[in-house]
Design goal:
By secondary structure, the protein is an alpha+beta fold. The chain contains three helices and 13 strands; from the N terminus they run αββββββββαβββββα. A hairpin with a 6-residue loop joins strand 12 and strand 13. The longest helix has about 40 residues, at about 215-250. The chain is rod-shaped. The structure holds zinc ion (ZN). The site of zinc ion has 8 residues, from loops.
Length: about 250
């Protein structure tokens, strides 16, 4: 019976102790940090505009904020928040904490937050520093592959005799509009297996397939055939005109 009483007493005492400890914890200040603008990374790396937020007992009247033992600000009414800019402090490890005072003068201390203040280049600027060169490259590529050939080739058409042997360099294609073969530009936009190219002879834009040299030479020969046909047409036309002229003269 004595033993049971002893155990019960111990149980009550332990409970009381737990409650006291819990109360003591509630009475202390709790500090958290919020990023308002900037960068928060691994290893507690921070850069930018941050807020220390303190919560504590209901009668909390005043909170003093510290960075490494130096007072950086005081707030005397709820919410007990204080903004600070990391760039205003030396780079590296810092200890952030707060001390609070109740209306009756009771003092409380907060937990300590460890932060590593990093330079802006490691923080917010990083995204921009990556994005800008990428954009420059992308727009540069668009300019090279599309705009420049469009501008430089505008209006100009080449005149090359039919059947002339060309140098195709990086690859040639056959114009689907006029059937003449031509060398494709290095900087031209790809459309699957084709390239967007402007025929230097007829001046029309089309998706031109890259053709093997054999096909290109065949196309050159084919031109020769049209050449002959054209010459023949011309001579026939001239003959006709000559005849007409003759008839005119005869008529006179
Ligand atoms: Zn053409």
């Amino acid at each position: 019976m004595k033993k049971i009483l002893y155990v019960s007493l111990m149980f009550v005492l332990l409970n009381l102790l737990t409650i006291t400890v819990a109360l003591a914890q509630i009475e202390e200040l709790h500090m958290s940090m919020v990023r308002d603008f900037g960068y928060g990374g691994f290893n507690n790396d921070i850069q930018g505009l941050f807020s220390m937020k303190v919560t504590g007992p209901a009668d909390l009247a005043r909170v003093v904020f510290y960075i490494d033992g130096t007072v950086i600000g005081e707030v005397s009414q709820a919410p007990f928040n204080l903004q600070f800019i990391t760039d205003n402090y030396p780079l590296g490890q810092h200890q952030l904490y707060a001390t609070g005072f109740s209306s009756s003068g009771q003092q409380y201390s907060s937990n300590v937050i460890h932060s590593n203040f990093v330079p802006a280049s490691e923080g917010t600027k990083t995204a921009l520093q990556i994005a800008v060169p990428v954009l420059v490259i992308v727009f540069g590529a668009i300019l090279l592959t599309f705009v420049i050939p469009l501008v430089t080739a505008r209006g100009k058409t080449q005149d090359l005799p039919f059947g002339a042997e060309r140098k195709y360099g990086l690859g040639g294609g056959i114009c689907p509009k006029c059937q003449r073969p031509f060398a494709l530009q290095l900087f031209s936009m790809h459309l699957g297996l084709s390239k967007l190219a402007r025929c230097p002879y007829c001046g029309k834009w089309s998706a031109v397939r890259i053709q093997p040299l054999v096909k290109l030479r065949e196309a050159e020969k084919a031109e020769l055939e049209w050449g002959r046909a054209e010459v023949q047409e011309k001579t026939e036309a001239e003959k006709l005109r000559a005849e007409l002229d003759d008839s005119k003269y005869q008529g006179l």
